[in-house]
Fold this sequence. Notes:
- This protein is of the alpha/beta class.
- The protein has one domain (about 1-180): 3-Layer(aba) Sandwich (Rossmann fold), CATH 3.40.50.
- The protein is built from four helices and six strands; from the N terminus they run βαββαβαβαβ.
- It has a six-stranded parallel β-sheet.
- α3 links the parallel β4 (about 115-125) and β5 (about 140-150).
- The protein is globular and about 40 Å long.
- The mean pLDDT is about 95.
Amino acid sequence: xxxxxxxxxxxxxxxxxxxxxxxxxxxxxxxxxxxxxxxxxxxxxxxxxxxxxxxxxxxxxxxxxxxxxxxxxxxxxxxxxxxxxxxxxxxxxxxxxxxxxxxxxxxxxxxxxxxxxxxxxxxxxxxxxxxxxxxxxxxxxxxxxxxxxxxxxxxxxxxxxxxxxxxxxxxxxxxxxxxx
Length: 180
């Protein structure tokens, strides 16, 4: 059985200084860099929004395709990434889950490469990480959330804990990076 690390949306606009910054979002980057070598495959997702999208009715403009804000955080090691998924690419597409990628089918890629164990990290725990994890579980993958390698938006205090609890109750395993 093969495994994969799925790095969700570790992009400039979601890190301090970005247009939709997650508090301490950049603090997970060194942890992700340390664990990348432990996996058979490394996959990433990126919000890749058009300049005009209904998504921006809910959120400030962020991760607009081809901009600095949509780029990966500059300290994230990306040369180990085997597959880059782009999501939220349509003008009516929110693209929270990596399984909604428009350039490649994540589920097909996982099946073709016999990946059963999916370890998820990235931004943000309470939105894109949660959506990705719930889709992974629904599609039958053994799913793990690396709790010290995620950070939340936390619009409401405790949204991070609520999201982790919801994922856990749906069947994911919560682990820390040193348990891998």
